[in-house]
UniProtKB/TrEMBL annotation:
Molecular function terms from GO: 8-oxoguanine deaminase activity
Matching InterPro entries: Amidohydro-rel, Metal-dep_hydrolase_composite, Metal_Hydrolase, MTA/SAH_deaminase
Domain Amidohydrolase-related: 62-426
CDD domains: ATZ_TRZ_like (cd01298)
Family to which the UniProt record says this protein belongs: Belongs to the metallo-dependent hydrolases superfamily. ATZ/TRZ family.
Descriptive protein name: 8-oxoguanine deaminase
Keyword list, A-Z: Hydrolase
Amino acid sequence: MSQLLILRHAEVLVTMDAARREIADGAVVIDGPAIRWAGASADLPPKLLAAAGEVIDLHGHVLMPGLVNTHHHMYQSLTRVVPAAQDAELFDWLTNLYLLWARLTPEMIRVSTQTAMAELMLSGCTTSSDHLYLFPNGSRLDDSIEAASTMGMRFHAARGSMSVGRSAGGLPPDEVVEDDASILRDSERLIDRWHNPGRFAMQRVVLAPCSPFSVSRELMRDSAVLAREKGVSLHTHLAENDKDIAYSREKFGMTPAEYAQELGWVGPDVWHAHCVKLDEAGIALFGRTGTGVAHCPCSNMRLASGIAPIGAMRRAGVPVGLGVDGSASNDGAHMLGEARQAMLLARVGHGPAAMTAREALEIATLGGAKVLGRDDIGAIAPNMAADLVAFDLRGVGHAGAWHDPVAALVFCQPASVSLSVINGRVRVKGGELVDVELAPLLQDHRRLARTLFEAARHPHTAGA
Ligand SMILES: [Zn+2]
């Protein structure tokens, strides 16, 4: 037995276990990367307490499973609040940003990934996927995977791609697209180098052509074949708004869900971002096949895409997780804040009973785990991965919310985490990152964000 890490005296321990138990004065015993025991502090086995290397007291905190982010574009933290893209819908928004993103460098990918992860970790996230689909100026997915490993976050790196440029009828400019053969070759290389299929894996690779309007039919189909051959998941954007549906009907003569089905893009190893406009037949198909959805309420509101039918999806058995989406379409990547917006947006669309606070938290934990194809995260129980976060509810933002501290997490202002444990290691303590110096990271990020913007404004004079 290695030295144990014990968390105890949490005001409430939210387990998300099969019985959805919430335990007053809760405690958790962590042994290496795994949870060994969870229950009431009074019932802590003395033998385990005696073997503790560290005991952390969590009076006044809610302790819960780490939140799981199922959709992001971390490089976009360099292009927040860009004036030309502030008030546009999806297709115009993309067109305004593609030229900026074409100037990204490997250093920018690294620093933006670390910065986005720091933000996520401080908001309660312990596992994230990231969908990177442009590789200009020598950038590679390896840059983001290596950056992630310095942060200690559990990471599903999605190898995105775009292969249909403007001259071929797609949306992105030709300079940011790759050809199908090199995308598939690089995908295979990345899986062989980085993908860990094992329990408690910190790194997985996902194949993720960007969207039906930026890649070929053949690349969608061949990516699915390769993913199944290698046992990795598939991810893309689907049915995001009305224009997206119109494009699908015009180019392919079918709905996005029908297109996905035809190309092998349904099943428990597939998840699609947004699905705001998934129709009834699409919802039934996803439910039947266990195809997952990454719900991104802030992004959907910012781009005025609409209200995704999350209640109908869940009733049909569709696995639903939460995604903050890229920082250019949701400029505030706060996972607990995203759960709050999921609850509020569901109510705007479908009434006050459409989503409870606990349901929002379940989507943000268990839901995300299911969507990513994992049964080792999302709940606090023996033999689950030791990914836990604690929020201190003794501040002014939660004053008076003593009736129900768990619901307060979602109803009140989104708190930052006080403590975060990922794979058994303390990564945030006292509200601060333990292993990473934030100030120099942010300084680098500021410099690079300006460089990127200037490079795009003066493309012929910039060095890159
Ligand atoms: Zn996205």
